[in-house]
Design brief:
The protein has 388 residues and is α+β, with helices and mostly antiparallel strands. Helix content is 48%, strand content 11%. The protein contains 15 helices and seven strands. Strand 1 and strand 2 form a beta hairpin.
Length: 388
Amino acid sequence: MSKIKQSDLRVKLGLGESKRVSEVNGLTLIITGTQKGTSFKFQHRCTLNGKRIEKILKTKDLDEARQLAAERMLKVNNGNHPDEVQSHGLIFGAVADEWFKQQKLAPRTARHQHCYLARLKDIFGDSIVSEIREDQVHSAIVSLQNKFGTWSAKQTLSTMSRILRYAKIVYKAKIPDARDLQTLFNGGSHKHRPSLTEGDLDNNILHIFLSIKGSSSKSKDKHIVLTYLAFLMLLRLNEINEIKVSNINFVDKVLFIEKTKTLSDGFKVPITPELERVLRYLVKKSNNQYLLSSSVSESGKMALSYVSWTLTKLNIGQTFHGIRSIGRMWMHQNGIPFEVAESCLTHVVGSAVTRAYLRTDYFEERRQAMEKWHEYLHELLKDIVTFE
């Protein structure tokens, strides 16, 4: 008796769950739960000359799917390729599936990639990779941009580009350079707010935090705390993301950064009373070795880049990295010596000879400078940045 039944087509599943039911002739029913209900599709697999061939059958009728599977198997048994198009070259749909299987992605990222992959396969699924033209990709991405928005189209294009590069490297296929199409999303230069250059830092900083607080994001309270941490530390995004709980010494008031962009031997950050208050709060929230932890990510680290993206999306004229510029401007305006201010941002100052003779990291001077900076931030934002 066949494993696939009409009742299988009416299976109701939770969001994101899937079920596979197989029978003879390589026919498989794939049932997937979606937000709109349950969707299903038929997949046919067979082997010809030692190479596996896969095909999603464009039907939702069980009897028709069985007939198509039988016809395809008849061609295979006679030594012929069951798909005329696929028999002439490398098919995008097959390459895309193969590429996706090679990826080691966190569950959330995998779901997003699968969505982009499905859109691309709907458009280019049966196309021969070497015959895909740049104008076809351009037209498809513009269509996706109009339908799903710029961000989704940009991510889909990035996935397309990675699949094509995979085909080029693994199969030596001639491919269009989809990376050039990133110019579709190029906007004007991202400038700081005028208040930064005019020296009115209070309004600029307040505007950033009030914009986050007034956003519709469900995680805005978390984003406020993380943005405040970035203001306190003035480190780069990836440097903050790598902080481990074991790097924090509350006794000696020192936070050790194992590696920065400019300092491979590490960097000591003085822990001021205000920074300690924030660090202790985040340590209690952490559920693994990282200060900014995540139970969803495979690495265990929070995707701080999402906070950066949210800040950019607010369209307030500031980026995550721009926080460092604000801190540096404040130090300049408040008489912090040049070398000390640059050291707070882990900038390398002077020539190699100068640094060889000047063997100091200005730790105590940085502590005093950071205490003043933190007192200023606390007084300015005490009514906005609150902790549970």
